[in-house]
Amino acid sequence: MKRIILIALALLLLTLLFAWGALFYPMDAKLPSGASLEAPSGEHWLGTDNLGIDIFAQISGGFFHSMSIGLSTAVIAFLLGGALGVAAGYAGGRVDMLVEFLINLFLSVPQLPIMIVIGAFFGQSSLNIICIIAAFSWAPIAKQVRARTMSLRKTRYLILARSYGGGLWYLFKTHMSRDIMPLLAISSIAVTGRAIVQESSLAFLGLSDPLAKSWGLMIARCTAFKGIYFTEFWKWWLLPPVFSLVISALLLRLLTRALESYWLEKE
Asked: Strand locations in 56-211, DSSP E?
């Protein structure tokens, strides 16, 4: 439990830091506030990019852009994966065969190339990115929930409740939710971390909203700058968004693993 609290506290502190940067930091994330490629200073904490826009302000805005996409994706994957997993595990038969086929299909296809093709076809917008990532995020959740539901379906108390005419919603709400909801919640946190990395990857390739302050877009603009590695500009222009992306995804991953371990110990 201590491990969960420490990781959650670190994630909270990171969120508060970027919240201060997005709300109270005096520099704007969209407009130039200094000279081009200024080094970090008391005025510009992480320096400025080639347009003179403050990098810390951009990173702060990018955190909430990435988190909003990650959480939105997780909600869709939570609802879709949970519903299909419970339906397949409970109903069995043709419903289970169809859902299992869809799960295996989405788990077997190479995600990034398909995401790139779909993203290029449907255009650059945050909504499209959320839908594309969610389409490939529900299958692992559905697979886990399906397996859990199939094991619960064979328990005596559930067989007894079904014999008395209990419907699927009643059985889920009364008997299955306490076993399935923690699994759904933990899986959704994992989806959030993966969605942040996938959104940054698509943004790096130029397939996300070009007006959004995305970490992937910041990295792409930095690496496209001629001679960036022959100067010291990369130290404050490239490293901060890369570090922010890595630490955010890492904390979410560590939180997922810690919650999984705690849940397994309680069982």
From this structure: none
In which band, very low, low, confident or very high, does the pLDDT at 252 lie, cut at 50, 70 and 90?
A: very high
Task: Specify whether the CB–CB gap between 61 and 213 falls below 8 A.
Answer: yes
Percent of the chain with pLDDT over 90: 30
**Domain map (residue ranges) of the chain:** 2-16+59-266
Is residue 194 within 8 A of residue 137, CB to CB? The reply is yes
Mean pLDDT of 67-91: 90
Distance from C-alpha of 179 to C-alpha of 173, rounded to nearest angstrom: 11
Rounded to 5 degrees, what are φ and ψ at 223?
Answer: -70, -20
pLDDT of residue 265: 67
In CATH, which of 1.10.3720.10, 1.20.120.430, 3.20.20.210, 3.30.70.20 is domain 2-16+59-266? 1.10.3720.10
Separation in Å, CA 67 to CA 14, 180, 183, 212:
12, 24, 21, 13
Calpha distance 75→81 (Å, rounded): 10
